[in-house]
Structure formats: structure tokens, C-alpha cells
Amino acid sequence: MERLVINSYNEFAVHLGKELGHSDWVLIDQGRINMFADATLDHQWIHVDVERAKAESPYKSTIAHGYLTLSLLPYLWNQIVEVNNIKMLVNYGMDKMKFGKPVLTGSRVRLVTTLHKIENLRGICKTEIAFKIEIENEHKPALEGIATFLYYFN
């Protein structure tokens, strides 16, 4: 799927209530999980101890940190939408975020988005993007919620 190109508030607004697109699939392997554990100092065994997870975890595998899954949002979002003509972009907040299903090591995930709400706040474009991070071949998403971004158009 091609990225949606946005150059103004009005170009964003016409997509209200519509799916904006989906990203490519990204592999969540043990190396990525280990690097995230090192970066966040979260070395809980369910994420990093492969042998213990096989023996003791109900999933029989290590799983990605929930926040690792969330941290992929900007990278995956950039694959869906290219917003031009801006001075600045601010990640403003997250609402209604739920971790629905663990991401087992070796799974692939992707982002699916819909423009939930848009407002013009004195020249600042406030968007609420409903998102789901899906796991390949799974019905329930790994994560879903609403991400709020502020776009400062030129």
C-alpha cells in the first residue's frame, strides 16, 4: 500500500472516519526483544529467558514487552502517512490503550489506522488516530487505542 500524503489540515480532514491504511509487517524476534530489554532495563524472564519461557510460560515462548509493541507505533505510522509542510509534530497522548494479546517471539505485527477525530486549534491540527497493532494470523490485536498528534502546519 502506498503512503497517504498530507499537506494541510483540509487534506487530513477529508479522511475523517476512514481507514488511513496499514503498515508492512515487522518481525518481532528475540534479538529485538533483548535490545529493548537492555534499553529499558526490563529483563523479566518472560521476555528474555528462552529456556525458562519454554518450560514455565503459558505461551511456551518468550513474548515481546507490551511497551516494545507500543514503541513501534511511530515507525509503523510513518509507513502509512507522510505529512508535509509542517514545522513540528508533537505526540500529545494516548487514550483507551489496551494490550489485547501477547506478541510471541517470531511473530510479525503491523499497524492499521483510522482517522477518529480532527480539530483545528488556532492553526494547530489535532488528530486522534484510532490504531490497532495486529499480529499476523491472529484475530485479536496485540494493542489498540487512540493516539493524539499535534501537527503544526506552515
Automatic annotation (TrEMBL):
- Which Gene Ontology molecular function entries are recorded, alphabetically? enoyl-CoA hydratase activity
Q: Which UniProt keywords apply?
A: Lyase
Identification of the protein by name: MaoC-like protein
Annotated EC: 4.2.1.17
Q: SUPFAM superfamilies per the record?
A: Thioesterase/thiol ester dehydrase-isomerase
Q: Which organism is it from?
A: Hoylesella oralis ATCC 33269
The record's Gene3D superfamilies line, in alphabetical order, gives: Hotdog Thioesterase
Q: Which residues belong to any copy of the MaoC-like domain?
A: 15-127
Kindly give the InterPro entries that the UniProt entry links to this protein.
HotDog_dom_sf, MaoC-like_dom, NodN-like
